[in-house]
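Long-time lurker, first post.

We've been arguing in lab meeting about whether adenosine-5'-triphosphate would sit comfortably in this protein at all. Half the group thinks yes, half thinks no, and nobody has a model to point at. So I'm putting the question to the forum: if I give you the sequence and the SMILES, can you give me back a predicted structure of the complex? Inputs are below. Any interpretation is welcome too.
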Amino acid sequence: MTLITTTALTKRYPGGVTALDGLTVAVEPGIVALVGANGAGKSTFIKILLGLLPPTEGSSTVLGLDPTGESDRIRSRVGYMPEHDCLPPEQSAAELVTHLGRMSGLPRTAARERASEALRHVGLYEERYRQVGGYSTGMKQRVKLAQALVHDPDLLLLDEPTNGLDPAGREAMLELIHRIGTEFGISIVVCSHLLGEVERICTALIAIDGGRLLKAGTMAAATTVRDVLVVEVDEGTAELEAALMARGLSVTRDARTLLVNASENDDTADVIVAAVADLELPLHRLDRQRRRLSELFSVPQKEVAGV
Ligand SMILES: Nc1ncnc2c1ncn2[C@@H]1O[C@H](COP(=O)(O)OP(=O)(O)OP(=O)(O)O)[C@@H](O)[C@H]1O
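Top reply:
Settle the argument with this. Predicted structure of the protein with adenosine-5'-triphosphate, as tokens:
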């Protein structure tokens, strides 16, 4: 079943801001990156999917359900990690997550057990009876993730889960999200304005810009390879550059990396390997250059529309 669909989804806030503007997407299950600059409309999109906000126009489905009429059913199957810190400081993580499990409809004992389990998954089991107010930012983010997981959802909507974290904390959070998505088989939508980090852990992408769809599809398609081969040798870069040019290849050099145009000749990789062997150089790397996700946002929108 398609995870999320939207048709011409539009949200205009009172006061005239158009946060979403005719967004049409269909997303398959997996770990989905919802990317866009600050103010692009990501939080608005998530809130509409949860049924917390009505759209001005258009429609959507989440797990086949309609957020405008079936938001209770959606919230029983979807876990939501909001962007901002909204945790009561005097409660322990165990109390808080149990309470939110109860609110999701779990009986008391099941809520307590599920809360312990969710806190174990996010690495807070040992600390679960401490007051949340004394937690670090990383621990607070993990509590928010645990409460999103407590009722065993089919889909997690995570709004900027790495916000406020230092590089090590971000890395750990991304690893955790990836593990939850792959080991538990839960679909996840991760909102982020940091392209590099979602590029690594997500299988699909929805990119929005000013409330409009910039691109949607698999991450592999979004970062498709280019007709450029990347060559690195441990020594002899200049010699190799000259040898490749002598063999008629078009080469540009970027420090220790040689970028070789491979669009005109299928044998380019073979020619490179032969040149490296002739010069008896230690080959360190030879592969196709991938397009980075960040490049999506640095090209004019009309160039991307047809991709
Ligand atoms: N309740 C509101 N009333 C009026 N305008 C709003 C409201 N909420 C959001 N907006 C505006 O709608 C636009 C999209 O906001 P939204 O929060 O959805 O973007 P975002 O991509 O999640 O950004 P951020 O990452 O900064 O939260 C912004 O211009 C924002 O100022």
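For your lab meeting: The first strand starts at residue 4 and ends at 12. The chain has a mean pLDDT of 89. Whichever side wins, do check it experimentally.
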